[in-house]
Amino acid sequence: MNDFELFWQDLNSEFTHYIKATEKEMPEKLQLLMKYGKTGKFEEGLDVDLLDDLSCTVLTGEIVADIRGLDKKPLIQLKDALTLFFARLKLEIERGVELPPMLEACFPLIDLMTGVQEDYLTIYELSLLWEMHPNTIRNEVLNTTKIRSELQKKERLVLVPVGLALSLSMERRGFTATEEPETEGMILVPVTSNNEFFNYQCRNRKGFRIGLKGSEFIIDDVTTALSELRLMKPKAYWRRKNTSGNWTIVSAMRWELRTTEEVLGTES
Prior knowledge:
The chain is an alpha+beta fold and 268 residues long. The protein is built from 11 helices and 9 strands. The strands form 4 sheets. Strands 1-3-2 form a 3-stranded antiparallel beta sheet. Strands 4-9 form a two-stranded antiparallel sheet. Strands 5-6 form a two-stranded antiparallel sheet.
Protein backbone atom coordinates (compact mmCIF):
# COMPACT_ATOMS: atom_id res chain seq x y z
CA MET A 1 0.00 0.00 0.00
CA ASN A 2 1.55 3.34 -1.04
CA ASP A 3 1.56 6.59 0.92
CA PHE A 4 -1.46 7.97 -0.97
CA GLU A 5 -3.56 4.91 -0.14
CA LEU A 6 -2.45 5.03 3.50
CA PHE A 7 -3.44 8.70 3.67
CA TRP A 8 -6.97 7.98 2.46
CA GLN A 9 -7.26 4.94 4.71
CA ASP A 10 -6.39 7.06 7.73
CA LEU A 11 -8.76 9.82 6.66
CA ASN A 12 -11.54 7.32 6.08
CA SER A 13 -10.94 5.79 9.50
CA GLU A 14 -11.03 9.17 11.23
CA PHE A 15 -14.12 10.23 9.31
CA THR A 16 -16.00 7.01 10.11
CA HIS A 17 -15.09 7.35 13.77
CA TYR A 18 -16.27 10.96 13.85
CA ILE A 19 -19.57 10.12 12.16
CA LYS A 20 -20.25 7.32 14.65
CA ALA A 21 -19.38 9.56 17.58
CA THR A 22 -21.54 12.36 16.19
CA GLU A 23 -24.51 10.07 15.55
CA LYS A 24 -24.82 9.39 19.28
CA GLU A 25 -25.42 13.08 19.93
CA MET A 26 -27.23 13.88 16.70
CA PRO A 27 -30.87 13.00 17.47
CA GLU A 28 -31.29 16.02 19.75
CA LYS A 29 -29.17 18.32 17.57
CA LEU A 30 -30.96 17.17 14.44
CA GLN A 31 -34.29 17.96 16.05
CA LEU A 32 -33.12 21.51 16.77
CA LEU A 33 -31.83 21.92 13.22
CA MET A 34 -35.00 20.50 11.70
CA LYS A 35 -37.27 22.54 14.00
CA TYR A 36 -35.65 25.78 12.93
CA GLY A 37 -35.65 24.73 9.29
CA LYS A 38 -39.31 23.70 9.31
CA THR A 39 -40.80 26.42 11.53
CA GLY A 40 -38.23 29.20 11.98
CA LYS A 41 -38.27 28.65 15.74
CA PHE A 42 -34.75 28.99 17.14
CA GLU A 43 -33.83 27.33 20.42
CA GLU A 44 -30.68 27.31 22.48
CA GLY A 45 -28.45 24.31 21.95
CA LEU A 46 -27.13 25.23 18.54
CA ASP A 47 -23.89 27.14 18.12
CA VAL A 48 -21.67 28.23 15.27
CA ASP A 49 -18.89 25.78 16.13
CA LEU A 50 -21.32 22.87 16.02
CA LEU A 51 -22.76 23.95 12.67
CA ASP A 52 -19.25 24.53 11.32
CA ASP A 53 -18.18 21.05 12.43
CA LEU A 54 -21.31 19.40 11.01
CA SER A 55 -20.96 21.25 7.70
CA CYS A 56 -17.32 20.18 7.36
CA THR A 57 -18.28 16.64 8.30
CA VAL A 58 -20.78 16.49 5.45
CA LEU A 59 -18.49 18.08 2.88
CA THR A 60 -15.44 16.03 3.86
CA GLY A 61 -17.53 12.90 4.09
CA GLU A 62 -18.85 13.34 0.57
CA ILE A 63 -15.33 13.76 -0.79
CA VAL A 64 -14.12 10.65 1.02
CA ALA A 65 -17.19 8.67 -0.03
CA ASP A 66 -16.74 9.65 -3.68
CA ILE A 67 -13.07 8.73 -3.75
CA ARG A 68 -13.29 5.57 -1.66
CA GLY A 69 -16.67 4.37 -2.95
CA LEU A 70 -18.23 4.50 0.52
CA ASP A 71 -21.93 4.53 1.44
CA LYS A 72 -23.27 8.08 1.79
CA LYS A 73 -26.39 7.09 3.71
CA PRO A 74 -25.03 8.22 7.12
CA LEU A 75 -24.63 11.70 5.67
CA ILE A 76 -28.04 12.14 4.06
CA GLN A 77 -30.12 12.94 7.14
CA LEU A 78 -27.46 15.29 8.48
CA LYS A 79 -27.02 17.05 5.14
CA ASP A 80 -30.77 17.53 4.68
CA ALA A 81 -31.10 18.97 8.19
CA LEU A 82 -28.29 21.44 7.54
CA THR A 83 -29.58 22.36 4.09
CA LEU A 84 -33.07 22.99 5.50
CA PHE A 85 -31.58 25.04 8.33
CA PHE A 86 -29.66 27.34 6.00
CA ALA A 87 -32.57 27.58 3.54
CA ARG A 88 -34.78 28.92 6.33
CA LEU A 89 -32.00 31.30 7.37
CA LYS A 90 -31.93 32.75 3.83
CA LEU A 91 -35.67 33.44 4.01
CA GLU A 92 -35.30 35.10 7.41
CA ILE A 93 -32.51 37.34 6.09
CA GLU A 94 -34.77 38.31 3.18
CA ARG A 95 -37.64 39.09 5.55
CA GLY A 96 -35.33 41.47 7.41
CA VAL A 97 -36.25 40.12 10.83
CA GLU A 98 -33.97 40.62 13.81
CA LEU A 99 -31.95 37.42 14.22
CA PRO A 100 -30.18 36.07 17.30
CA PRO A 101 -26.39 36.76 17.21
CA MET A 102 -25.72 33.05 16.74
CA LEU A 103 -27.71 32.98 13.50
CA GLU A 104 -26.01 36.12 12.21
CA ALA A 105 -22.67 34.40 12.85
CA CYS A 106 -23.80 31.58 10.53
CA PHE A 107 -23.88 33.81 7.44
CA PRO A 108 -20.39 32.73 6.20
CA LEU A 109 -21.50 29.08 6.26
CA ILE A 110 -24.46 29.60 3.91
CA ASP A 111 -22.47 29.51 0.68
CA LEU A 112 -20.29 26.67 1.97
CA MET A 113 -23.22 24.42 2.85
CA THR A 114 -25.79 25.19 0.18
CA GLY A 115 -23.45 25.90 -2.71
CA VAL A 116 -25.11 29.23 -3.51
CA GLN A 117 -25.15 32.65 -1.90
CA GLU A 118 -27.90 33.95 0.36
CA ASP A 119 -29.53 35.74 -2.60
CA TYR A 120 -30.78 32.44 -4.08
CA LEU A 121 -32.37 29.14 -3.15
CA THR A 122 -32.00 25.92 -5.09
CA ILE A 123 -34.95 23.75 -6.06
CA TYR A 124 -33.70 21.14 -3.59
CA GLU A 125 -33.79 23.71 -0.77
CA LEU A 126 -37.37 24.57 -1.73
CA SER A 127 -38.28 20.89 -1.77
CA LEU A 128 -37.16 20.57 1.85
CA LEU A 129 -38.97 23.75 2.91
CA TRP A 130 -42.19 22.85 1.11
CA GLU A 131 -42.03 19.08 1.68
CA MET A 132 -42.44 18.49 -2.04
CA HIS A 133 -40.48 16.44 -4.56
CA PRO A 134 -38.03 18.60 -6.60
CA ASN A 135 -39.55 17.38 -9.87
CA THR A 136 -43.01 18.47 -8.73
CA ILE A 137 -41.67 21.94 -8.00
CA ARG A 138 -40.08 22.13 -11.43
CA ASN A 139 -43.23 20.98 -13.20
CA GLU A 140 -45.99 22.65 -11.20
CA VAL A 141 -44.46 25.78 -9.69
CA LEU A 142 -41.57 27.02 -11.79
CA ASN A 143 -42.85 26.03 -15.22
CA THR A 144 -44.60 29.32 -15.96
CA THR A 145 -43.24 32.08 -18.18
CA LYS A 146 -43.41 34.78 -15.49
CA ILE A 147 -41.56 32.73 -12.88
CA ARG A 148 -39.15 31.10 -15.32
CA SER A 149 -37.96 34.51 -16.50
CA GLU A 150 -36.73 35.33 -12.99
CA LEU A 151 -34.73 32.15 -12.51
CA GLN A 152 -30.95 31.98 -12.80
CA LYS A 153 -28.66 29.09 -13.63
CA LYS A 154 -25.32 28.12 -12.14
CA GLU A 155 -23.78 25.12 -13.84
CA ARG A 156 -26.52 22.48 -13.40
CA LEU A 157 -28.37 24.30 -10.63
CA VAL A 158 -31.58 26.25 -11.16
CA LEU A 159 -31.52 29.20 -8.76
CA VAL A 160 -34.61 30.97 -7.43
CA PRO A 161 -34.12 34.56 -6.20
CA VAL A 162 -34.77 34.55 -2.47
CA GLY A 163 -37.49 37.24 -2.72
CA LEU A 164 -39.38 35.12 -5.23
CA ALA A 165 -38.75 32.00 -3.12
CA LEU A 166 -40.25 33.72 -0.08
CA SER A 167 -43.40 34.84 -1.91
CA LEU A 168 -43.86 31.40 -3.48
CA SER A 169 -43.31 29.73 -0.12
CA MET A 170 -46.15 31.70 1.44
CA GLU A 171 -48.50 30.11 -1.10
CA ARG A 172 -47.47 26.49 -0.52
CA ARG A 173 -49.41 24.21 1.81
CA GLY A 174 -46.32 22.29 2.87
CA PHE A 175 -44.52 25.43 4.03
CA THR A 176 -44.74 26.70 7.60
CA ALA A 177 -44.20 30.46 7.81
CA THR A 178 -42.17 31.77 10.73
CA GLU A 179 -44.37 33.17 13.48
CA GLU A 180 -43.58 36.76 14.38
CA PRO A 181 -43.52 37.75 18.06
CA GLU A 182 -46.51 39.83 19.06
CA THR A 183 -45.86 43.49 19.79
CA GLU A 184 -47.98 46.15 21.44
CA GLY A 185 -51.01 46.91 19.33
CA MET A 186 -50.48 43.86 17.11
CA ILE A 187 -51.93 40.33 17.29
CA LEU A 188 -50.73 37.18 15.54
CA VAL A 189 -53.54 35.63 13.49
CA PRO A 190 -53.94 32.77 10.99
CA VAL A 191 -54.05 33.85 7.33
CA THR A 192 -55.43 31.93 4.35
CA SER A 193 -53.80 31.48 0.94
CA ASN A 194 -55.79 34.44 -0.42
CA ASN A 195 -54.87 36.71 2.50
CA GLU A 196 -58.09 36.41 4.52
CA PHE A 197 -57.38 36.39 8.25
CA PHE A 198 -59.27 35.36 11.36
CA ASN A 199 -60.95 38.30 13.11
CA TYR A 200 -64.10 39.47 14.91
CA GLN A 201 -66.08 39.41 11.65
CA CYS A 202 -65.81 35.60 11.56
CA ARG A 203 -68.41 35.40 14.32
CA ASN A 204 -71.93 34.31 13.43
CA ARG A 205 -74.94 34.63 15.75
CA LYS A 206 -73.85 31.56 17.76
CA GLY A 207 -70.16 32.33 17.99
CA PHE A 208 -66.89 31.45 16.25
CA ARG A 209 -67.01 28.02 14.58
CA ILE A 210 -63.52 26.55 14.41
CA GLY A 211 -62.04 23.16 13.58
CA LEU A 212 -62.25 20.65 10.75
CA LYS A 213 -65.60 19.77 9.24
CA GLY A 214 -67.24 17.12 11.38
CA SER A 215 -65.33 18.10 14.51
CA GLU A 216 -66.09 21.80 14.77
CA PHE A 217 -66.86 23.54 18.03
CA ILE A 218 -68.12 26.99 18.91
CA ILE A 219 -66.24 29.62 20.93
CA ASP A 220 -68.01 32.71 22.17
CA ASP A 221 -65.21 35.30 22.12
CA VAL A 222 -62.47 36.07 19.60
CA THR A 223 -59.45 35.91 21.94
CA THR A 224 -60.38 32.45 23.23
CA ALA A 225 -61.02 31.31 19.66
CA LEU A 226 -57.55 32.52 18.66
CA SER A 227 -56.01 30.56 21.53
CA GLU A 228 -57.77 27.41 20.33
CA LEU A 229 -56.69 28.01 16.72
CA ARG A 230 -53.07 28.17 17.89
CA LEU A 231 -53.40 24.66 19.30
CA MET A 232 -54.63 23.12 16.04
CA LYS A 233 -52.05 21.00 14.24
CA PRO A 234 -50.93 21.01 11.53
CA LYS A 235 -53.29 23.81 10.45
CA ALA A 236 -55.93 26.04 11.97
CA TYR A 237 -59.45 25.84 10.51
CA TRP A 238 -62.37 28.22 10.96
CA ARG A 239 -65.53 29.38 9.24
CA ARG A 240 -66.07 32.78 7.74
CA LYS A 241 -68.72 34.28 5.45
CA ASN A 242 -67.64 34.23 1.79
CA THR A 243 -68.62 36.70 -0.94
CA SER A 244 -71.81 34.70 -1.56
CA GLY A 245 -72.85 35.01 2.06
CA ASN A 246 -72.17 31.34 2.91
CA TRP A 247 -70.25 30.27 6.00
CA THR A 248 -67.49 28.04 4.62
CA ILE A 249 -64.39 26.53 6.21
CA VAL A 250 -60.95 27.97 5.43
CA SER A 251 -57.51 26.95 6.65
CA ALA A 252 -54.39 28.84 7.66
CA MET A 253 -51.41 28.93 5.31
CA ARG A 254 -49.38 31.11 7.66
CA TRP A 255 -49.59 33.35 10.72
CA GLU A 256 -49.09 37.10 10.47
CA LEU A 257 -49.38 40.19 12.64
CA ARG A 258 -52.48 42.37 12.32
CA THR A 259 -53.52 45.42 14.33
CA THR A 260 -55.67 44.99 17.40
CA GLU A 261 -58.45 46.97 15.72
CA GLU A 262 -58.40 44.70 12.65
CA VAL A 263 -58.65 41.57 14.78
CA LEU A 264 -60.86 42.61 17.70
CA GLY A 265 -62.85 45.45 16.14
CA THR A 266 -63.24 49.09 17.13
CA GLU A 267 -64.58 48.17 20.57
CA SER A 268 -61.27 46.59 21.61
